[in-house]
């Protein structure tokens, strides 16, 4: 089925470990995004990508790394997880009109 | 910043109409978007406005006034399943959307 999927859906990791969250879309959208959602803050943009091999920082990029070697994949890596990175992470892609479509989310807990 | 403001919480009655307001302080954006988010789920797209005026989609309508920095989402014939958070967002370009903190809508029987 066409759409945008994230994996894993749930993840518990320890402080200091590296974690990669996966995102895959089948629409061939050029634009892709990573957001985190926390109580009291709403959705905040971490990184975005306009096309393969083009990425840029959003509002809260510190502690995160992204890559986009293929149009359909946009993985997000936490290089050394901290408790402040406990959050729900959403990947999204947008159509040419700018409407963003979200994956199901990854609930990450750092202990 | 874009300072997007929405009420934190609203309560309405099943079958009634509710208007959720969104104000912002920026002029440079492609469009204003509304999303619905049920607890524990991803945001889903409802409506968007590029030009000033009203856009109607079934029970949902959205209005934009760029000169006043104001938008609203109107929900008619409210149903219990409309209990959710409603997110106002600006943008629509390569750098994505900037979201307000959302309005938690409670529908009472």
Question: Can you give a write-up of this model?
Answer:
The complex is a heterodimer of chains A (111) and B (109). By secondary structure, chain A is mainly beta. Chain A is 0% helix and 53% strand. Chain A is built from no helices and eleven strands. Chain A has strands spanning 4-7, 10-13, 19-25, 31-38, 42-51, 54-57, 64-66, 76-78, 87-94, 100-102, 106-110. In chain A, the strands form two sheets. In chain A, strands 2, 4, 5, 6, 9, 10 and 11 form a seven-stranded mixed β-sheet that branches. In chain A, strands 1-3-8-7 form a four-stranded antiparallel β-sheet, with no helix packed on it. The model of chain A has no long low-confidence stretch (mean pLDDT 96). Chain B is mostly beta strands and 109 residues long. Chain B is 0% helix and 56% strand. Chain B contains no helices and ten strands. Chain B has strands at residues 9-13, 18-23, 31-37, 44-49, 53-57, 60-65, 70-75, 84-93, 96-99, 103-108. In chain B, strand 8 and strand 9 form a beta hairpin. Chain B is globular and about 40 Å long. The N and C termini of chain B lie far apart (39 Å). Classes of the chains: A mainly beta (111), B mainly beta (109). The interface between A and B is medium-sized, with 27 and 23 residues.
Keywords for this entry:
heterodimer; A: 111 residues; mainly beta; 4-stranded antiparallel β-sheet; globular; B: 109 residues
Task: Characterize the main sheet of chain A.
Answer: 7 strands, mixed
The backbone outline of chain A, from C-alpha atoms, is globular
Order of helices and strands of chain A: EEEEEEEEEEE
- How many distinct helices of chain B? 0
- Low-pLDDT runs of 5+ residues of chain A are none
Helicity range of the residues of chain A?
under 10%
Mean pLDDT of chain A comes to: 96
Distance between the termini of chain A: 35 Å
Task: Provide the residue-averaged pLDDT of chain B.
Answer: 95
- The oligomeric status of these chains comes to heterodimer
């Amino acid at each position: 089925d066409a759409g945008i999927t994230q994996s894993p859906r749930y993840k518990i990791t320890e402080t200091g470990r590296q974690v990669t969250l996966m995102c895959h879309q089948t629409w061939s959208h050029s634009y892709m995004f990573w957001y985190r959602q926390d109580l009291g803050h709403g959705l905040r943009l971490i990184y975005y990508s306009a096309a393969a091999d083009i990425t840029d920082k959003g509002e809260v990029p510190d502690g995160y790394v992204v890559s986009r070697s293929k149009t359909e994949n946009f993985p997000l890596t936490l290089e050394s997880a901290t408790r402040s990175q406990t959050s729900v992470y959403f990947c999204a892609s947008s159509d040419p009109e700018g409407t963003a479509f979200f994956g199901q989310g990854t609930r990450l807990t750092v202990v | 910043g874009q300072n997007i403001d929405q009420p934190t919480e609203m309560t309405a009655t099943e079958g009634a109409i509710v208007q959720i307001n969104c104000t912002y302080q920026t002029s440079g954006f492609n469009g204003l978007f509304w999303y619905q988010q049920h607890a524990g789920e991803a945001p889903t797209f409802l409506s968007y406005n590029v030009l000033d005026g009203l856009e109607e989609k079934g029970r949902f309508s959205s209005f934009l006034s760029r000169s006043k920095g104001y938008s609203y989402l109107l929900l008619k014939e409210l149903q219990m399943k409309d209990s959710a958070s409603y997110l106002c967002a600006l943008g629509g370009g390569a750098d994505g959307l900037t979201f307000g903190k959302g309005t938690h809508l409670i529908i009472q029987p």
